[in-house]
Sequence to fold (463 residues):
Amino acid sequence: MRKHVKGNVSWVGYMDWELESFHGDEYSIDNGSSQNAYLIEEEKVVLMDTVWTPHRFDFVENLRKEIDLKKIDIIVVNHGECDHSGSLTAIMDEVPGTPIYCTASAVKSIEGQFGKRGWDFHVVKTGDSLDIGNGKRLIFVEMKMLHWPDSMATFLTGDNVLFSMDAFGQHYSVEELYADLADQGVLWREAMKYYANILNPFSPVLLKKLKEMEGFNLDIEMVAPAHGAIWRKDPTQIIRKYAEWADAYQEDQVTVAYDTMWEGTAKIAHAISEEVHRQSPNTVVKVFNIAKADKNDIMTEVFKSKAICVGSPTVVGRILSSVAGWMEMLGQLRFRNKRAAAFGCYGWSGESVRILQEKLREAGFDVIDENVRSNWNPEEGDLAQVPALVRALLPEQEVEQPSAVADEKPSRYACTVCGHVYDPEEGDPDSGIPPGTPFESLPDDWSCPVCGVNKSMFKKMDH
Ligand code: FEO
Fold:
């Protein structure tokens, strides 16, 4: 069933009330989700995205009830991931030859998933537009790395609707469709969880993109994402919130996350929590057993925190697998400007604290030396180290980002967002940087030729 959105725009997506997880089991779904597809019926009829593969036949049959499928003139694919492109095969069986507008990378994604089927792709770039009649146009804006390389948004002039794809969405089924009608507590909790767990790695790209979009002077009256509620009242509130979240967001909060074998490491976690509250009564403290709590919920709390403490006992010279898996996700999410400490019990060899500190450093945290490393169950002497750990974790001065240090020998640098490697021997001739230019000598306005982030997002490579 269609839902009216604005003017001649209708929602024709899928309310996925039963969904329990997303991206395999990487993302927990607690309040359903939706795959939002839209129909624009001007002189030209445009289908904006589709829904996930398992729902493709329902999608086509529902669409058939709303419109003669042969009337669809244009299909826009804002993103190739199969939760949005997964019904293309079914719809293209009905309307073969219909032109598909998408980015060059989306063509690769779609053909990679569904094979080369001879579809009529029209590759678009930022600023390209398409006349759909009645004085209205579609303007395309590439959203590279938000969250995959092929993503784009489409702006409908006249109605001034920004179809923002994954950006500004939530995994939340909202039958009423609009953010202002949704449960506000759930809406904002799901919006933040979505940002922290999906978009946070690309915050530098997002900040740059938001600035670029400001320059387009789009008079946005509605933000229609690909998941969850549509923002119509004060529609740019979610854009302003993203700008805040993307700028190394933190609240006055500390998160303690651990797993434990025989309760010793749990005892240290509780002692740290109590000490944070004692030293800083206004600081919010959240404590999670990683093996028992939802991993995405913990990540959302990490996102809100200015510091975290991670604990694991030593097990066969390593750390518990629950903590190790969670640490892998922590690294993927590329949190910035946060302090971290490690703690844990051991019986024999006691490597866990060192391993946790290394993993936290790799994940981009500013790791303090102070730790609690307790042989067997923590005793008074072990817990006496907790106050020093908390003092170091909550300094009065905010942590400054380390600046790049010049190195006489030219080193290669890798982009921490997209992985592109700057090799001084090759330079960046397309940007006018000759071979032999050390990374440190690149102009301040030089940016990654692949994803566009600035120099500060590059990290020196070991080799
Ligand atoms: Fe909602 Fe990136 O797919």
Observations:
- The chain has a mean pLDDT of 94.
- The pocket of MU-OXO-diiron is lined by residues 79, 81, 83-84, 147-148, 166, 226-227 (CB under 6 Å).
